[in-house]
Known about the structure:
The protein is an alpha+beta fold and 121 residues long. The chain is built from three helices and five strands.
Amino acid sequence: NKNDAGEILHDSNKCFLANLGYKSTKETLSAFFSQFGEVDHVKVIYDGNGDSRGFGFLWMKTKEDCIKVAKAAVPNGFTIDGRYGVHLNYHLDKNPKMKHIQHEKNLKAARDAVAHAQQAH
């Protein structure tokens, strides 16, 4: 993967974004995450109709900035573009077993966020 300037993006600076709102764009996400450091690139995943699939990827300029974002995301995620419970997944440990454990934690957190949002209405 490359950023808009054609520079190679490094996986060590990459975060997975889940539960994105349909209004979220590369620009709004970049603006939001810039509070944690320099954003290198944002990629929102779209379906064949051009609608957001609700997830994407964030590359920060440094690994340290990724860690800052990941720590800020715990425990409830972020509210971005009016969407509560946007979660981020960043793996310091590339061990597949740890990825599975983190994924399960993120799924539980996302379910909890949805339940919380439903109770609030």
